[in-house]
């Protein structure tokens, strides 16, 4: 399973200009390819309307500030997303994928591009494995969504070799942190648990929404450190991300898990929020 599809429709937007996909947009001296100095966001669009865009753009700005990247105003990005979804004939699709990337041009100033394409295939369930590598919760890039994804590529190679769909990282304290492309929730002793941001995990936009939905539904959910040694006793689990939404974990390290409780009502609440935020589908 490839979380990031390799093929895109025929157009992208570079610094506000609509261009053919595949055209050169970055010089080799740009800090993104040269030093990994770049940040990005992946946003789901439902019927041509980006979902939770303000939260994604806020997180992008935090990464830009840390990496010394120029980040234009939100309305610039939102206008460009609308133009690109229409140009790529995705404005009527039930769901599409938007990727917004900031880079570091050698001359300084803003450099950004937006791609839009179909959503990669994610099943309603996933098999996950733990790996022998750790996230550094004290690292300079901890909690940021940057283009420095070499660790994730290695982790996914291990997951695929094990016949799994996702890999789970611990942090340096041997606590559960996150997946390569996702946040994680575990069910234990009648309560849902998820690693706190202090674990080094990405502050996922969908993760934050799920915590809010749990509160609205009156279901117990806590952000607490989770020792990796607790994974074998988990009674259920699921992954969250903008594109996978809420994905049940059916096995951890080949140990089968039961169908997690509460997920039907959680998915229903998620769908209701999507409809509320993006409006009804076009007639």
The shape, in one word, is globular
Overall SS class: alpha+beta
- Tell how many strands the DSSP assignment holds: 15
CATH architecture classification of the largest domain: Alpha-Beta Barrel
What's the story with the biggest beta sheet?
A: 9 strands, mixed
In N-to-C order, the SSE pattern is EEHEEHHEEEHEEEEHEEEEH
Low-confidence sequence ranges: 1-8
CATH class of the largest domain: Alpha Beta
Index terms:
283 residues; alpha+beta; D-amino Acid Aminotransferase, Chain A, domain 1; D-amino Acid Aminotransferase, Chain A, domain 2; 2 domains; nine-stranded mixed beta sheet; six-stranded antiparallel beta sheet; 6 helices; globular; disordered N terminus
Write a structural description.
The protein has 283 residues and is an alpha+beta fold. The chain has 2 domains: 11-117, Aminotransferase class 4, branched-chain amino acid transferase, N-terminal domain (D-amino Acid Aminotransferase, Chain A, domain 1, 2-Layer Sandwich), CATH 3.30.470.10; 125-273, Alpha-Beta Barrel (D-amino Acid Aminotransferase, Chain A, domain 2), CATH 3.20.10. It has 6 helices and 15 strands. The chain has helices at 31-35, 53-67, 74-87, 150-161, 205-217, 263-278, and strands spanning 11-14, 17-20, 39-46, 49-50, 96-102, 112-117, 125-135, 166-171, 176-179, 183-188, 191-194, 221-223, 236-241, 245-252, 255-256. Strands 7, 8, 9, 10, 11, 12, 13, 14 and 15 form a 9-stranded mixed beta sheet that branches. It has a 6-stranded antiparallel beta sheet with strand order 2-1-6-5-3-4. A hairpin with a 2-residue loop joins strand 10 and strand 11. Helix 5 (205-217) crosses helix 6. The protein is globular.
């Amino acid at each position: 399973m490839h979380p990031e599809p390799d093929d895109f429709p025929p157009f992208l937007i570079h610094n506000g200009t609509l261009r053919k996909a595949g055209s050169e947009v970055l010089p080799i001296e740009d800090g993104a390819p040269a030093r990994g100095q770049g940040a990005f966001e992946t946003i789901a669009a439902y019927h041509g309307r980006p979902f939770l865009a303000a939260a994604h753009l806020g997180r992008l700005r935090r990464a830009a500030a840390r990496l010394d990247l120029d980040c234009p105003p939100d309305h610039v990005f939102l206008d460009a997303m609308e133009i690109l979804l229409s140009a790529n004939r995705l404005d009527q699709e039930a769901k599409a994928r938007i990727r917004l990337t900031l880079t570091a041009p050698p001359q300084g100033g803003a450099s950004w591009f937006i791609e839009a394409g179909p959503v990669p295939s994610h099943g309603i369930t996933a098999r996950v494995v733990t790996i022998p590598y750790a996230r550094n919760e004290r690292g300079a890039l901890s909690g940021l969504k940057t283009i420095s994804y070499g660790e994730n590529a290695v982790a996914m190679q291990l997951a695929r070799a094990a016949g799994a769909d996702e890999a789970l990282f611990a942090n340096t304290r041997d606590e559960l942190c996150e997946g390569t492309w996702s946040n994680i929730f575990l069910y234990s002793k009648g309560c849902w648990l998820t690693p706190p941001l202090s674990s080094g995990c990405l502050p996922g936009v969908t993760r934050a929404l799920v915590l809010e939905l749990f509160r609205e539904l009156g279901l117990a959910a806590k952000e607490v450190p989770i020792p990796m040694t607790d994974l074998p006793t988990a009674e259920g689990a699921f992954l969250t991300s903008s594109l996978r939404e809420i994905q049940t974990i059916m096995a951890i390290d080949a140990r089968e898990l039961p169908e997690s409780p509460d997920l039907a009502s959680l998915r229903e609440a998620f769908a209701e929020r999507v409809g509320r935020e993006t409006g009804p589908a076009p007639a």
